[in-house]
Amino acid sequence: MNKSKFVATQNKYVNNGSKHLHTTADNSFVNCVIANDTPKKIDFLILVIETLQINATESLLLKAKNIGLSDDFSTRVQFWKMRCSNPLRNSYTFSSLTTDQIDSLVQLISSMSENLYPLIRQLLSTKESETLNQERWSLFTSRLKSLIRERMNIQRSYVASLLREDNNEFFRELLVILSLSCGEGGAKRLKASLYHQA
Amino acid sequence: MINLTYRFDQNSSSLELAGMPDVSNGDSEVTIGIITSWTLKIIGAPPIEGDKEHLDNLMRVILQYSRSYISGIRKTYRSHLNIVTISPHGICHKLLLNSTKEGIKPLEIILDDSELSDLTRCLDLLIIDSRFNIRWDINKEIPFSKKYIRDSVSIPKNNFNFFYAFIIFLLTSTLLLFVPTNNKHELRDTANPSQVLSEQDE
Questions:
Q1: Nearest alpha carbon to residue B92 among B70, B108, B112
Q2: What ipTM was assigned to the predicted interfaces of this complex?
Q3: How many distinct structural domains can be found in chain A?
């Protein structure tokens, strides 16, 4: 008997239980420390999500509620406080992120990037019309730069260089990170990139 | 005998696996426990086929490369016996596949970032799929050491502003050292001001 089951699978961001999954994922992080640039990286990734989606903060909070994240995502203020651990922000609070907060933010970013994957993919693709691609990039960078001007400390030389540069290398890196962070496997990958072995 | 086929589609990539339940392992009739064949189709490239070992090699190399790439590292990864190799190619990525059969030329596929992420997502979906009861020979996603990242990043992304500021400070200080000063004149002017005051009072 031949039984064919063609399925176009979409990841539901839920571990649907392959028996040979690494269930001891957290053991990989036993002797690891949070990387220095983690708050910066996470904040910029959320900034890119905000660039790609209008009114993204509401969507982020709603998504956090849907996937059952902690009280840190109950209000905009709590969420903003977490993001203020980025030292490049105007309103830097000299705080640091806890591992639980990082886990939650990784889940949230991964889940949001899955929703925004078609847009991210369009920006990263080199196989589409060059003119169209340039227009998309121009729109994307101008919006992202305006958000950076609004939120970040533009006196910092790093922020100034981001606003000045035309090659958009850093912005492309952020999009690549988002594209490789989709789904459960992507979340694990992103989490691993936010830590260092001690 | 039940033959099952499952497919994972992600825009430019499509991975199709055929197999059958491993009854001795207690698999249900919808679970693949033994892979008989697989086919990977990437738009613009001929279909790739192989057995379980080839798929393991492909998965290990692609997932390792993606793991490195997300940390900003771009370096070449090779599988056992160089069956699968992936390396940076400008802003794209070159996937080189060597056939284990004699007389077949290696297949070279250039992937851009979007195609690499499509392929990675296909493999991610396969790994977590509960319809497969197969032990994949792949590495865990673990953090890298600082030293490894420092050594592997090809182009140092240093911000040279501090270095330039330091050089300018040194140059300015050196120039100021050569400016002549009249120390004696300053000493005479400031010597014993109380005596001058007392003379004025008289």
A1: B112
A2: 0.85
A3: 1
